[in-house]
Amino acid sequence: MAYQTTLNSEVSYVGVGLHSGVDVHMTLQPAAADTGIVFVRSDLPGEPQVAAKASNVTSTLRATTIEENGIKMFTIEHLMSSFNAMGIDNCRILIDSEEPPVADGSSKVFMELIQKAGGKELPQLRREIVIDKLYRVDDGDKFVLALPYDGFRVSFTSINPHPVIGIQYGDYEINQEIYGKEVAPARTIAYEAEIEALRKMGLGLGGTMENVIVYNDQGWMNELRYPDELVRHKILDIVGDLRLAGFIKGHIVAVKSGHSLNTTMAKKLYEAFCK
Prior knowledge:
Blueprint: E1 3-7, E2 11-16, E3 23-29, E4 37-41, E5 49-51, E6 57-59, E7 65-68, E8 71-74, H1 77-86, E9 91-95, H2 108-117, E10 119-125, E11 129-130, E12 135-139, E13 142-147, E14 152-160, E15 166-173, H3 176-183, E16 189-191, H4 192-200, E17 213-216, E18 219-220, H5 229-242, E19 248-255, H6 259-273
Parallel strand pairs: 4-9, 11-19, 14-19, 16-17
Antiparallel strand pairs: 1-10, 2-3, 3-9, 4-5, 6-7, 7-8, 12-13, 13-19, 14-15, 17-18
Helix pairs in contact: 1-2, 1-5, 5-6
């Protein structure tokens, strides 16, 4: 049995929100056992909190959004992915915006922040989600499976009709070492032809060539960190979205999944194990 953890000290970061485009000040703070991951809105009267749990997911349009008592936080998946890989159960995220900073478009910066703060074990057992049978969610030809497995592993197949992307497959054991080397540096992706439409919708306002990898009909417009960076980022996202259910012991198999299916699985597991 594993014990719960929190940060050993607080650590801060200042950046810009990917979709909002506004400056964000964020401080990760230690928290007591059974607090979970909570966003604390320092910019609002009374500093209301939004708990990062599957039952609070309200939107998955281009990012994962959680909401509690009318207070929203969106694009939380990269930060949540780092908490999952680093094994952090409890943290207060003091933040003055409704979106965490995008950093370099990956979860590498957040992982480094958590490493800088250090971890601390708490005298309370962790409640793990131990997959004991097949769980499945589908949306047409897209699906996510959760299977019994001694560890936490993610296998992801991305199928994109664009010739620049095509079919990409990634399969990783998710632990601090492998995630830090193979998954955390993978950045978020955009198709150049869609960027203007996204901005008219009020999305992607903080996106730049420094925090988003962009492709067009000729190829990639910036240098990739991995030839299959897209599918690695898809794995980063699903690791973050599933953290909303808790810590999972199992094998996740996903095909063409996005935030909607990811969080549907998170809700299914949360209902089965955490209610």
